Amino acid sequence: MPELPEVASLAEFLRERAVGRTILAVDVVAFQALKTFDPPASALGGLTVTGVDRHGKFLDLDCDGLHLIIHLARAGWLRWKDDLSGAKPVRPGKGPLAVRVRLAPDEEGLAPGFELTEAGTQKRLAVYVTQDPESVPGIAALGPDPLADSFTAEVLKGIVGGSRTQIKGLLRDQKVLAGIGNAYSDEVLHAAKMSPFKIAATLTDAQVADLHEAIVTTLHDAVERARGVAAKDLKAEKKSGLRVHNRAGQACDVCGDTIREVSFADSALQYCPTCQTGGKPLADRRLSRLLK
């Protein structure tokens, strides 16, 4: 799933290539992906892309005041095309293509643009056309951005204080913090040397400070690594920079211990016992149920 660093990189990528260009057309192939109907997607035709922003995991293309909002969800992606002039029409329901955004031809006759695709059967990619980004429920409900200057250790202390939620779940809650998902929550907790099952309210002031530093540093470093990387290469770049996520069975780069995994119904977390849990493996709840 694209998280804050990848979405930030995609936003920068689109600023360099789409801002100042006129939208020729927006072709919606997967109709379930379009979550709004007024204004229609066709209203974007003829407008100029004047800016690209990010709200948590949401991409926001400002087109002369009308916003094209994109949430890539778990299996969605944005694929840039240098020339879509010869692209064949795609029938709804055929293949992974959900939306195609075509830009007007440049001086050389090339008509660039991008396609939104989604793999798998769970279609959660979402596209909105709106005059106000805050009208998108997911954006309106976002918590503070962890890379904003206003996100301080004191703000984080207020978030964790009184919460009986496990810290892993709290970090992933978009209403609590905007932009952190399954992968970077694993990375943050490894950097903070903290168990993913630790109850948020039990954190000491020192642990809150360490967690704040881990959040900011981990995300900032990931954004810097992704800066300038082509959209097609972002997934591989993200994977190469991860220390624990999706590395179960491999050696921890910090201590050499074997990275472990806890599986859930539709996801899994990874952690290092030596770095995070005092050397004690966490119970794999799915495996525990199978053994009963």
UniProtKB/TrEMBL annotation:
Cofactor(s) it depends on: Zn(2+)
Q: Where is the FPG-type domain?
A: 243-277
Q: Which reaction does it catalyse?
A: Hydrolysis of DNA containing ring-opened 7-methylguanine residues, releasing 2,6-diamino-4-hydroxy-5-(N-methyl)formamidopyrimidine
Report if keyword Metal-binding is assigned. Answer: yes
Which residue intervals define the domain Formamidopyrimidine-DNA glycosylase catalytic in the entry? Answer: 2-93
Source domain of life: Bacteria
Question: What InterPro entries is this protein classified in?
Answer: FPG_cat, FPG_N, H2TH_FPG, Ribosomal_uS13-like_H2TH, Znf_DNA_glyclase/AP_lyase, Znf_FPG/IleRS
The protein's matches in Pfam families, at most eight in alphabetical order, are given as: Fapy_DNA_glyco, H2TH, zf-FPG_IleRS
The UniProt keywords, alphabetically, are:
DNA damage, DNA repair, DNA-binding, Glycosidase, Hydrolase, Lyase, Metal-binding, Multifunctional enzyme, Zinc, Zinc-finger
Q: Which family does it belong to?
A: Belongs to the FPG family.
Quote the protein name from its UniProt record.
Fpg/Nei family DNA glycosylase
Which organism is this entry from?
Nonomuraea typhae
Per the UniProt record, the lineage of the source organism begins with: Bacteria, Bacillati, Actinomycetota, Actinomycetes, Streptosporangiales
